[in-house]
From TrEMBL:
InterPro entries in UniProt: Exosome-assoc_fac/DNA_repair, Sas10/Utp3/C1D
Pfam families recorded: Sas10_Utp3
GO biological process terms held by the UniProt record: maturation of 5.8S rRNA; regulation of gene expression
Keyword Nucleus: yes
Protein name: Nuclear nucleic acid-binding protein C1D
Localization: Cytoplasm; Nucleus, Nucleolus
Keyword terms, alphabetized: Cytoplasm, DNA-binding, Nucleus, RNA-binding, rRNA processing
Functional summary from the UniProt entry: Plays a role in the recruitment of the exosome to pre-rRNA to mediate the 3'-5' end processing of the 5.8S rRNA.
Family annotation (PANTHER family): NUCLEAR NUCLEIC ACID-BINDING PROTEIN C1D (PTHR15341:SF3), SUN-COR STEROID HORMONE RECEPTOR CO-REPRESSOR (PTHR15341)
GO cellular component: cytoplasm; exosome (RNase complex); nucleolus
Protein family membership: Belongs to the C1D family.
Length: 141
């Protein structure tokens, strides 16, 4: 569209938006070609279960998002279509996977080291007898 002249079938004001949309569709097409070039089983064998879940969720979310756009182009309000609930369901699972990933990244607590750190950091009063003994020793010298 960038090299083409502006079509009279739509307002001139939206030409830039349509050009951007066309470029985005091209980028999505390239990504899909890349993903489709490798078999799903081959891809999933190389990934751990958490990464497999991420790939499946992103694929499902992308497919449903594209269907959302399709509905909008057909004049159907996607907010009133069951695809909205499906996208929300997928989003919930994506948040669960994110929580699991965050828990794995969180530091582990070394209880022994933590208790030693706290014990040494706290102020401990000296016994009353110890201070008198220390003072008596100084006065003799």
């Amino acid at each position: 569209m960038a090299g083409e002249e502006i079509n009279e079938d739509y307002p001139v004001e939206i030409h830039e938006y349509l050009s951007t949309f066309e470029n985005s569709i091209g980028a999505v097409d390239e990504m899909l070609k890349t993903m489709m070039s490798v078999s799903r089983n081959e891809l999933l064998q190389k990934l751990d279960p958490l990464e497999q879940a991420k790939v499946d969720l992103v694929s499902a979310y992308t497919l449903n998002s594209m269907f959302w756009v399709y509905l909008a182009t057909q004049g159907v309000n996607p907010k009133e279509h069951p695809v909205k609930q499906e996208l929300e369901r997928i989003r919930i699972y994506m948040n669960r996977v994110k929580e699991i990933t965050d828990k794995k990244k969180a530091g582990k607590l070394d209880r022994g080291a933590a208790s030693r750190f706290v014990k040494n950091a706290l102020w401990e009063p000296k016994p009353k007898n110890a201070s008198k003994v220390a003072n008596k020793g100084k006065s003799k010298n």
